[in-house]
Amino acid sequence: MAIDQSALLDLLAALKDTDVSDRIRVATERLYQELIDAEASQVIGADRWERVEGRTAQRNGSRARTLTTTTGDLDLRIPKLRTGSFFPSLLERRRRVDQALFAVVMEAYLHGVSTRKVDDLVKALGADTGISKSEVSRICAGLDEQVGAFRDRSLADASFPYMFVDATYCKARVASKVISQAVVIATGVRLDGHREVLGFDIGDSENGAFWTAFLRSLKARGLTGVQLVVSDAHEGLKTAIGSVLIGTTWQRCRVHFMRNILAQVPKGNQEMVAAAIRTVFAQPDADHVTEQFDVIASMLGRSNPKVEAMMHHAKDDLLAFTGFPTQHWKKI
């Protein structure tokens, strides 16, 4: 498609009379309209006011169409035909918001912004006509498909010898009520150090049955080769790991353990205690890790015997990583 010299001069004149901030919208609107008219001429077999024998249809006016983009709302005209119908391939049959606005709408939706406020946000971004509640729902419905495809994908194509599992609680609307629900997630680590979210699920509580079902779903999707699982000391989770991932080693998450330790230490001493314990995990090999662990536990026990007892009780679980290659320690 080429815009003739006359049309270009008309466009130039229109742009000269337009504010700088609106020139991109005017130019974009003109380009879209030219593309629509060119496609219509191709379908009809003749340009506007052209008389040819091979034409397949005739124009019969046009209908208005608003295209919302980040440059503003484009007021377009879609040619109508006396016989048959025409709709430009450039547009979708429903009012289209461009991809940048799609991303904004979905991000706002995920953060709990109401559909009314989403409408205000879209207007603030330059879409004068805003966006309806139903269109917000339509746009965000695509999220369910994307999330479902990701959550249910096969895990059989790669091996993840190391896996982290954890849970948090979030507010969710269920049956018109806002309640707290457990969100569990599993992250795998390949031998090359690449991390990948393997799966997640939502349930009423973080109990053993829920964890068992979640881990079984990972295995059903093809998860194999897990050698070490890192998690907190939740009893239901530990039981689930032992029954579903048979033969794997369990390691107690040092972050969760550190929180438990610091809860027993006066606030003024917490930074010193945390720094001392971190030295255990900075050692070059298994022998030095074990030696440093005993030294730190004994040192802290002089002022706080309970901390020393907690460390010795959790020693084997905390130091499980020492049974694996040292080059992998940074990742596990």
Mean pLDDT: 84
Distance between the termini: 58 Å
Please give the order of strands in the largest beta sheet: 5-4-3-6-7
Question: If classified by CATH, what would the architecture of the largest domain be?
Answer: 2-Layer Sandwich
Biggest beta-sheet profile: 5 strands, mixed
Shape designation: elongated
Instruction: Provide the CATH superfamily of the largest domain.
Output: Ribonuclease H-like superfamily/Ribonuclease H
The name CATH uses for the topology of the largest domain is Nucleotidyltransferase, domain 5
How many separate helices?
Answer: 11
How many beta strands in the DSSP annotation?
A: 7
Proportion of beta-strand residues: 15-25%
What is the CATH class of the largest domain?
Answer: Alpha Beta
Portion of residues within helices: 40-55%
Q: Strand-and-helix sequence, N→C?
A: HHEEHHHEEEHEHEHHHH
Rg result: 31 Å
What number of domains? 4
Structural class: alpha/beta
Poorly predicted residue ranges? none
